[in-house]
Amino acid sequence: MRGWWQEMAGLVMPAECAGCGLPRSVLCARCGARLNGREARRVRPDPEPPGLPPVHAAAPYAEGVRSVLLAHKERGALALAKPLGAALAGVVRGAGHTAAGWGGRGPSGPLLLVPVPSARRSVAGRGHDAGRRLALAAARELRGAGVPARVAPVLRLRRAVADQAGLDARQRRANVSGAMGVAAGVSRLWRTGGPVVLVDDLMTTGASLAEAARAVRLSGGPVAGAAVIAAASRSFENNRNWRGT
């Protein structure tokens, strides 16, 4: 019931910009430009967890970007899924250019967007699966731009994990280490699909993405990289090729 009400409220109620509060605008042009007005950047957390694939992001987790992501994920502003999905698709396109660009060689099927899973209790509490919703929106954008892509929600949490908020990098790695696995029967998907791109809304320490990559690789999945909408500002600074915009 809660999820249905959020869907209706997010679509028909008057809104203000989730980034800056501008009246009657779900996402104003200025805040939208923070998400879609920059090219995808390689980001590296410090310390970088073992096994972390190359990660690209659209924007630092600051300014209105933080407000927009929180509004979608925690406050159920579902109308933001489309612009956020477009931003995520932009990262995928910018980092890989084409499906073949992500893998270089190997599988030639559609690009497989694999969302990092949230705990069931978190999904239930929010009333929606934010990561999967953004992955679906991004896949639609990619297909509209001529890039074959599909969502493969195959990752599962195999044990309980604590809320990552408030944990440092070492604690986050310990919290999620070995926690993820894949759904049964993914071998055929890996054989017929294209490169795997892990997707999430945010990267802070990279612990969850590294664990997701471990689980996919262990099952034989061809992890090419990861794409996120935002990353901690420090991750941008750690990229020697980045120049602030």
From TrEMBL:
The keyword Transmembrane does not apply. GO terms for molecular function: glycosyltransferase activity. The keyword Glycosyltransferase applies. This is Phosphoribosyltransferase. Keywords: Glycosyltransferase, Transferase. It comes from the Bacteria. Belongs to the ComF/GntX family.
